[in-house]
Specification:
Number of strands: 2
Strand order of the largest sheet: 1-2
Largest sheet: 2 strands, antiparallel
Structural class: mainly alpha
Number of helices: 10
């Protein structure tokens, strides 16, 4: 079993908890023990979970060596960032690029925007505004007489991609888009049955075309 002790020390450093007295207070509150050396592995894990609750965010490594973010808002931010990549708005889909961008634009470190609601919402809304402004993604909820799938995140991004490639397309005459989605997902033409994972397939299929088009027009 991998020891949690290195991660605990890393967590203290990231959170700025440097005084031994403050560390012991956390140990005692969580486990009743004053030192890590006196704890069972499960107690050490409990301390690590408490540090994560306080805002510690470890950047893990994928098998390919690239960074992988963890945290309360990581998945949502990753989905937005990869969508931006598929819209040709950013050059890299990697988590490290997301962290660097947010830090550069807002000054927020990964602990804050991955864990703290207010900071995460600021970043999320900023990314959505960029996607709307530069790629035409419409975040308006479906109207009373619209189909429900108009509100799906994947549909909104894929439709924006299609319109970037086909500027004259509209929701009334979109036969080409329908054919592309059905052929990519294998769906039987029932839009409401297309899953989020299938919309990701559509976005990923359109992504290279959008990036190539943007590069050609640069």
């Amino acid at each position: 079993m991998t020891s949690a002790i290195p991660a605990i020390h890393a967590g203290f450093r990231q959170l700025g908890i440097t005084e031994d007295e403050d560390k012991r207070a956390i140990y005692a509150r969580v486990t009743g023990q004053p030192r890590l050396s006196l704890m069972e592995p499960a107690q050490q894990d409990a301390v690590l979970q408490e540090l994560r609750r306080l805002g510690y965010s470890k950047i893990e490594r994928r098998p390919n060596g690239k960074q992988r973010l963890t945290g309360k808002y990581a998945k949502k931010l990753q989905a937005l960032w990869i969508s931006m990549w598929n819209l040709g708005l950013v050059e890299s889909r990697d988590d490290a690029a997301l962290v660097a961008f947010v830090k550069r634009q807002t000054g927020l470190d990964q602990v804050r925007f991955l864990h703290h609601t207010v900071d995460a919402e600021k970043v999320i809304e900023a990314l959505k505004a960029w996607m709307e402004r530069e790629a035409g993604v419409t975040w308006t909820p479906p109207g009373k007489h619209d189909n429900a799938y108009f509100g799906r995140f994947g549909y909104k991004v894929a439709w924006a991609q299609w319109r970037l490639l086909n500027p004259g397309a509209d929701r009334i005459s979109r036969k080409g888009f329908d054919i592309f989605v059905i052929s990519t997902t294998g769906a039987a033409g029932m839009w409401f049955e297309i899953s989020d994972d299938q919309w990701v397939k559509v976005m990923n299929a359109l992504g290279p075309r959008v990036r190539a088009a943007r590069k050609a027009g640069a």
